Amino acid sequence: MDSLAGLTKGFAIALTPINLLWCLLGTTLGTAIGVLPGLGPALTIALLLPITFKVDPTAAFILFAGIYYGAMYGGSTTSILLNTPGESATIVTALEGNKMARKGRAGAALATAAIGSFVAGTIGTLGLTFLAPLVVDVALRFGPADYFALMVLAFVTVSAVLGSSAVRGLTALVIGIWLGMIGVDLQTGQARFTFGVPELLDGINVIIVAVGLFAVGETLYMASRASTGQDEVIPLKGSLWMTRDEWRRSWPAWLRGTAFGFPIGAMPAGGAEIPTFLSYYTEKKLSKYPEEFGHGAIEGVAGPEAANNASAAGVLVPMLTLGLPTSATAAIMLSAFQSYGINPGPLLFQTQPDLVWGLIASLFIGNVMLLVLNLPMIAIWVKMLMIPQPLLYAGILVFATIGTYGITQSIVDLLLLYAVGFAGYLMRRYDFPTAPVIIGMILGPLAEQNLRQAMTISAGDWSVFFTRPLSASLLALAALALVAPVLYELWSRSRSRVTTATKA
Amino acid sequence: MIDRRNLLLSTAAVTTATWAGLGATTAQPIELLKIMVPAAPGGGWDQTARTIEQVLRATNAVAGVQITNVAGAGGTVGLPQFVNQWKGQGNALMVGGMVMVGAIIANKSAVKLDAVTPIALLTGEALALVVPASSPFKTAKDFADALKADPTKVPVAGGSAGGSDHILLGLIAKAAGVAPAKVSYVAFAGGGPATAALLGSQVAGGISGYGEFAEQIKAGKLRVLAISSDKRQDGIDAPTLKEQGIDVELFNWRGVFAPAGVTDDQRKAMISLMDKMAASPEWVDACNKRGWTRITRTGDAYKTYIAAEIVRLEAILKDLGIG
Question: Is the CB of residue A340 less than 8 Å from the CB of residue A334?
Fold first, then answer.
């Protein structure tokens, strides 16, 4: 088999001591930048681009791929421990992960995230090795109308994080959609809600809002209530590692998360966030313990973490098979190819087999390295929770500030962070859920742009959403997901009424 | 790691700047060149700055180059900073180009390009009009005829609205006698997603820098109908729009500017530095590798070129309903 021979050769290239060293450097660096909120893989690789003048291409790409995968691992750590997502793809992880940490199960949350990332990364890379041409073929069939339908389906997932009051949850969602609209509109080139501030023309970075709402808002809330002066240390309960029961609950979530992450990551407009939303929603619906969701359910960490790592492998599918960059990181990697005079395109596998297969082999190796690197670290990470709360939260504030400033070195972004943080405090104070804001901010603009692209292409004909098979089935799924639970409840209620009636 | 690298560079900057300040009586060679890139790392302007750095270092023209990225809004976030905070610095340059001219108009930016000192036009990239391999259009004329018949039936993919891709479609429409505001332009967040829409035959055509499509064209998945340059380009097997009777010419040009308030000697020193660089074999080599067409125009010739571009782009953006 062609792929197998290529992969064998790739391992021979990736397993040379010097390339292993590049891989180790990349994964370590990637984990570090993943931990820091703000600094993401795209920016890091961009800053490292000048090394392409010095090292050979295979080494450089092994380094870059290590950073890319590593960031996906590292991003979950701060989400779980500090409620401060390092990357937009790990925002969902914070929902259950941080609650687990508060219950004293930080070790298990970190372990399920790391092992889930490994499982998903490995399956995803296997998919990249053997299924790439097939997957990309299907992914390209998705047009704007189908993406819009996918976004509608993803919006249903908001219902999983609405909290106790639907009105409050939907208000938060609308705020998120509004935040997502700020900036120059892609389809018309007109500025919206920028109030003459040039820094707002490119829109607001979702990471700033996530860090502001979760980390800064939480810090202010804690500070407002810290009148007793007691240092409350979060206790560790039970084993540091996952219990048998936690294993049993994690592995199906890992596999389902992978099944969402890989194909959606491979779609040109898919991304890493949507599969994490879908995974979280699915886990909540399928769980035998739905009451635990919102209070630290391990499936809610395992699924989304697997989803974001699988999507990282998925993003490489169109990049390596077609030369299409579908994420910011992939776009930067593409420009690295160009500075070597290599133009990635449909013929890359034929013209640069050593480079491509060496890169893919190094992804397998990098995944193992990341697992080995991250599992022992858990024992050290959880020690962080022994820090007295005032000091811990002060640290979080410093951490969030540095990370945000690191993105663009812009004062406007810092002011925005604190403003959003204050809003987050008010939301927390008056019991508004914050997760719908993030979901709205990510999905809103995607849904809007795809809707308008679809309408331009169809010359204003709404029927495209129902005549295209992909779009129609996705919309039907969304309708089913919304209506089915209500119908089921009505049905079971009327049934129980019938039974009581017959009994009487 | 990254922060340390920047720290080292800025320490170096302080030291060199002091040395330069001590002997700054005559126009002596520039020791440390500071370049502002008004965009995020990785894009075309950033690559231009990094290529300048690479060539100047290889030819020992300067001792060091320090690059600062100020991202945002097609360069209109970086431009005011360059005008206000970098004023009078004789060893500083900013990268900019056609995209910035368009962004200034579209964003109604208060600070305009006349506030900085034009030094040199360096490169240009021809845009390409492409269609999926299965498309019935064989020539740019077929495309223009279809556009004339019903512009809503010919959706065209490209980058953000008001950008160079949209501008070219507007110019083609105008040349074909169709009101530019009538075209069906589908804006995507960059060349990658636009190419994906083309490969999936979601749109009738696409416009972007030739390099964005080059590999797909080579692999036979897309067909190039025309390129937007004034004459045929080496290494590109495609006719120009003009050859096919569509009188349109557009280059996505990039160049460098000095801050406001530099002395005439400083301006001349910078122009000669860029002239020498543009003539070096290292520069020619780097441009060929990246598929950039070299267009060297310095000083006043560059100034005149920009003035004409501003007039032309303002008119077409107005026709497109932007700015």
Answer: no
Q: Which of B40, B53, B153 sits opposite A459 (nearest CB)?
A: B153
Nearest CB to A456 within list B72, B186, B221:
B186
Tokens describing residue B142 = 């077929």
Q: Name the phi and psi angles at A86, rounded to 5.
A: -80, -30
The enclosing H or E element of B45 equals: helix B44-58
Contact A346 B215 (CB under 8 A): yes
Closest CA to A450 of A154, A64, A225, A131: A154
CATH number of B2-23+32-109+252-309: 3.40.190.150
Q: Report how far apart, in Å, the C-alpha atoms of A402 and of each of A46, A391, A408, B38, B114 are.
A: 19, 17, 11, 22, 36
Please give the helix or strand (H or E) that residue A183 lies within, else none.
strand A183-184
Secondary structure E strands in chain B? 32-37, 64-69, 92-97, 117-132, 156-158, 185-187, 205-209, 222-227, 251-258, 293-298
Cβ burial, residue B155 (10 Å; 0-12/13-18/19+):
buried
What's the whole-number mean pLDDT along residues A174-192?
Answer: 88
Q: Which residues on B lie below 8 Å from A191 (Cβ)?
A: 107
For residue B148, give both structure tokens. 């004339």
Cβ pair A348, A320 in contact under 8 A: yes
Number of Cβ within 10 Å of residue A233's Cβ equals 12
Q: Do B3 and A9 contact (CB within 8 A), yes or no?
A: no
B46-65 in b/e burial notation, b at 16+ Cβ within 10 A?
Answer: bbbbbbbbbbbbeeebbebb
A50 pLDDT above the threshold of 80: no
At A485 the pLDDT is 76
Chain A residue with minimal CA distance to B4? A47
Region B125-244: CATH code? 3.40.190.10
Q: What is the ipTM of this complex?
A: 0.81
pLDDT digits (tens, 9 = 90+) for B120-164: 999 988 899 999 999 999 999 999 999 999 999 999 999 888 888
DSSP string, A400-420: HHHHHHHHH--HHHHHHHHHH
Q: pTM, whole model, 2 decimals?
A: 0.83
CA angle A409, A413, A414 (to 5 degrees): 90
pLDDT confidence band for A448 (50 / 70 / 90): very high
How many Å lie between the alpha carbon of B61 and the closest alpha carbon of chain A? 18
Helix H or strand E segment including A184? strand A183-184
Q: How many helices (H) and strands (E) does chain B have?
A: 11, 10
Asked if residue B98 lies in contact with residue B305, where contact means CB atoms within 8 angstroms, the answer is no
Asked if B290 and B47 touch (Cβ cutoff 8 Å), the reply is: yes
Distance CA A24, CA A22 (A): 5
Nearest to B289 among A46, A201, A341 (CB): A341
Size of interface A-B (CB pairs under 8 A): 158
| The predicted structure's pLDDT at residue B68 | 81
Query: Least CA distance to A143: which residue of chain B?
Result: B202
In chain A, residues with a C-beta closer than 8 Å to the C-beta of B160 are 184, 186, 189
pLDDT at residue A149 greater than cutoff 70: yes
- Give strand pairing partners of B32: B64
Of A188, A269, A322, the CB nearest to B161: A188
- Sketch the domain layout of chain B as residue ranges: 2-23+32-109+252-309, 125-244
Q: Which positions in chain B touch A326 (Cβ < 8 Å)? A: 192-193, 196
Which structure tokens are listed for A476? 């039907």
Asked if B2-23+32-109+252-309 and B125-244 have one fold, the answer is yes
Residues of A in contact with B106 (CB under 8 A): 184, 189
